[in-house]
Each structure stands twice: as structure tokens, then as C-alpha cells.
Amino acid sequence: MSSFWKCLLWVGCAAAIAAVDCKDERGVSNDVTGDHQPTTVQAEIAAIAPRDRKLLPADRPYNGLAWQIHRAKESVDEARKLLPEIAALGADAVLISNAGYQEHAGSETFQIDPAVTPSEEQWKEIFRIAHGNGLRVVFMPIILLSSPRGNEWRGVINPPNWDDWFEQYREFLMHFARIAQANNVEVMAVGSELVSTERYTERWRKLITDVRKVFRGKLTYSANWDHYKVVEFWDQLDLVGMTSYYKLASEPKPPLETLVEAWKPIKRGLLRWQQQIGKPLLFTEVGWPSQEGAAIEPWNYYYKQEATQGGLEEQRNCYKAFMEVWFDTPGVGGIIWWEWNDTPGGPSDYNYTPRGKPAEKELRAWFARVRTPLRPEGEAVAQPKTSDGAASRPANQG
How many domains in the chain? Predict the structure, then answer.
């Protein structure tokens, strides 16, 4: 619809993005206080030989980190800094997320904000930098709410007219699909955590068909960890994308053994379902803020916004538990860790980034292990079947 491109941008949204201490819908602040504790990332960037940056085939599992682009003007400069850092950690992929904005869950329209979304030329340079550093790209355009009412988030979107909303969303996706195709992007997500839309299966099927006419890479959808069985269009996608914010403990600072045991039944259930669907799992968001209580509510970055040694260790143990349980699991098509950004990180930070924290050390070791091929390429998985329902996502997750 023409309103998609012609609507005026909200001044408040643009101001929020431009602010130094802005937070995205996930609540990650760009104003991290405290001195940055230096890591060896910069030194390792220089040490990586060009032969080590060769792109892996598109059908190999995607092991990388997520990067959210918040400001178009700075996006290329951030890419030049952050993407070599991600490669230096040992990753072979990067998930790049960029948002279009809807005012609140009941709004009629949403749009691309040129202050937030890079231009086609900027995207071209960003993807060139990623591929030049040996990073395959998972491209995930998302919808965020600029002025949510109460606990609203994109999972409860309820516009006055769903036909109008899906037509606007189609234009939104096709814009990014054309850019992705022009720049040889490996994977594109057709949506992320749009829980309230998932019941409209036929609308989604048509949307996916339209995207495939433009984009020839792999397609996924990032479902919420407690709502993936409701989605009934997995058969049209190449990868089953999902977040991983499961409750793993009842008390802060749980021991590693508790976290490992909590993951085991979750893993068994996921793999049983994955075998029925017959598509590789792509964990689009694996991460915990470095806060005490992160294992209780990993999605809740407001749980205890305080940097403590206990929080750093809890984040580290959450990383270690996931790595121990999920390492080299057949049926997993990729694991993306949330997230890497331009904040200083370090022990004074209580957000998701592992930069300068004990979790970074675990991540480096993990990437070193997974870069070694352990299974034959093209390993077959079960044929797809239709899935059934599941619980909805907590309303306070951003």
C-alpha cells in the first residue's frame, strides 16, 4: 500500500533511535557505564589469515552472533568494526537484524525509517564486509513498536484490518528480499516472533511464495520458544527458526549441573518435534544477560539490572550448559548467539553481549570446536509433518 512508503515518521521514534542512551525493543542500552575491560579481539583480527575467512557452503550449520542495526548513518562504520570482531571470535555467520516500526499493537500502518534502515548502497557494503570476513549472513528484518501501550510487543499486534497489515508487511519483506538477493545473502527470515499473526496460515503461505519469487536463498521464520508448534507453514521454509529463552532455574546463580539437567528434557522434546517436521533447527537467539536471575527469565533484561560477579558467572554457566547439551547435535542447522554490538561490555555491563566477560572465553572455545566438520555434508533429516499448538509467549518479552 502507498501508505507504507508515504506515512510520516514519528518524531519520537527517530529521537529515541538517535539518543545516546536509547534502548531497542529488547531493552539493550547503548549507554553502558563503566570502563571497558580490553579483550584480545583486535589482536586476533589482525592474526586471521585470508584463507581462514573462506565462506562455508550455505548448507552447513550457521554458527555466529547477532548484530542489530539501530542507526543507518553509522551502520557501515559499525560493520567495519564489528564484523571483523565477530569473525575473530571464530564465527562463520552473522545474523543482521533491522527494524521497521509500528506505533503500537493496534496501529494501522508501519514503515521503514531511513534513520534506522540503511540505504541499498549501505546494505551492499555491509554484506560485502560480512562475506569478506568469511561470515555467511542470516538477514532478519523485524517489526518493533515505537510507542507500545503497557506491556505490548510485536507478538500481540492486532491491527484494525489484517488484509491491509499483511499487504504492508509484504511490501516490507519484498524490499528486503530484493536487497538480500542482490547481495547473495544466504538466509533470510520472513518474520520474527509475530505470534498473533501465525494463525493466518494461508496469508503466510502466499507471503512466502511471493518472497521466493525474488529471493533464491534459504528462508526461515524465527518463532518464539514457547510458540513454535502453532506455526503451520514450516513445510514452505528451509530452516525452523526459534529463540531459546527457556526457564532453566528457579533461583539466581544456579550451578552448572542444574542448568545442564534443565536443558535435557527440553532438547529431547525439541528433537522429537524436529524429526516430525523434517527441517533443521536454527536457534536465532541464544543468550542471557549477565544478571543474577538470567536463567530464570532469560527474556527479561529488567530482572536485575545490576552488574555483579554473580551475574557474570550466571551468564557464563548458561553459555556452558547450552554448549554442553547441544554440541554437535544432528538436526541443528545453526546457533546464533545474542548478541554482539558496539557497547564496551566488560564486567560493568549487565546486558546480553558477552564482550569482555567470562562468557566470551566460552564462546571462543565453542567456535573453535564447531568450525571442525564432524558430520558428512548433506546428512538427511526426517520428512515434514504438520505441527500442533503450544503456549504463548510471556507478554513482557521485548
Answer: 1
